[in-house]
Amino acid sequence: MSIIGGVRPCDTPSAPSVRSPAVSTTEQRRTGDTLDVDRSDTGYRDWLKEAVRKVQADANRSADTHLLRFPLPERWGIDLYLKDESTHPTGSLKHRLARSLFLYGLCNGWIRPGRPVIEASSGSTAVSEAYFAKLIGVPFIAVMPRTTSAEKCRLIEFHGGRCHFVDDPRTMYEASARLAVETGGHYMDQFTYAERATDWRGNNNIAESIFRQLELERFPEPAWIVATAGTGGTSATLARYVHYMQYDTRVCVADPDNSCFFDGWTTGDPDVTCDSGSRIEGIGRPRMEPSFVPGAIDRMMKVPDAAAVAAVRALERAIGRKAGGSTGTGLWSALKIVAEMVAQGRRGSVVTLLCDPGDRYLDKYYSDAWLAEQGLDSAPYTATIDAFLATGAWPS
Fold first, then answer.
1. Domain of 302, in residue numbers
2. Would residue 122 count as lying in a domain?
């Protein structure tokens, strides 16, 4: 598999700018004092209608994702659920985001026939965007850290995308923008547009789906929903929907090691940064992303990466499903919240997300050799989870 200049070969046409789409027909005419410029292009509009139809049809073909129960002792009076986003066609929560971003880019006139879509991503968003790019017939380039799992790279290429690797995750943004200029393509920029591309008021977004699926449960309005932050778009959608619908549900965001969302949220400093990239693929960022809406959420937890690993392994023991590290980060926080509710004698429900399948990370979160290489010891956190599930008390 050859790599030229860090990017696998991709035949892309050259054009002058990123968000100044070329049009093949410009008609200018003067009628009296009126100057009339018509840039409509029947061929492009026909392509656009068909591209939007294909993306919307994908949603119609996809049944809603499942809401799984994590087994807890009945006497606690608390139900813990995981919204299983791994059942999307591209296997992750990012399928929803990619669909929204493509519709947003198409309807804004940013995505054009024959021109590549470029994205900065640590993997799962790129897999989903490669899928939609192939669906509408445009090239796709993923700009991603060199440490991204081999399975994610394989999936991007399976869907027809190309991988452009950077050694420093902090340079993904600039590299993506540069590639868009060089190729005349569109830099999707999930970290800016995630929170605005999704209709947070409803329209079958993830928040509306959760509440609809809980309607017949014994606690239909959850006490807490726990999310993790990569772009911040999911937490923004959840929190805005809760406020819009006037629910009492609180939203907690769990943040991994080597990420600055927690520090930015607690200090109120939007310019906070960190020097290292997150080991939990898909979440954690070296800067406060524009799509993160700190004022909308109620609580944040800083979760050690070793605790996230312990949590996904506990999930497999509990329900027989492997999941990625982002799921473990959220699950650890959800279990702590359940422990608080038990201690307070509160009944109710808690929801977190199963973001993507664990088979993408067999060489990482399920590999003892990788844990040792990273200096991570999950054993104390495993003992904490086991003790809590056995006694209902969170060890100090």
1. 58-89+204-391
2. no
- pLDDT confidence of residue 241: 97
pLDDT in tens, 187-244: 999 999 999 998 888 777 999 999 999 999 999 999 999 999 999 999 999 999 999 9
Rounded CA gap, 330 and 252, in Å?
A: 9
Q: Would you say residue 192 lies in a domain?
A: no
Task: Give the pairing of strands 162-166 and 78-84.
Answer: unpaired
Distances (CA, A) of 372 to 28, 31, 313, 367, 378: 67, 75, 16, 9, 10
Q: Are 189 and 120 in contact (CB under 8 A)?
A: yes
- Three-state SS at 249: coil
The number of distinct structural domains making up the chain is 1
Q: Which residues of the chain have pLDDT under 50?
A: 1-18, 20-24
CA separation for the pair 261, 46 (Å, rounded): 42
CA dist 377 to 139, 314, 382, Å?
A: 42, 15, 10
Tokens of 367: 């590999």
CB of 111 closer than 8 Å to CB of 186: yes
Predicted pLDDT of residue 30: 63
Neighbours of 396 (CB within 10 A): 4
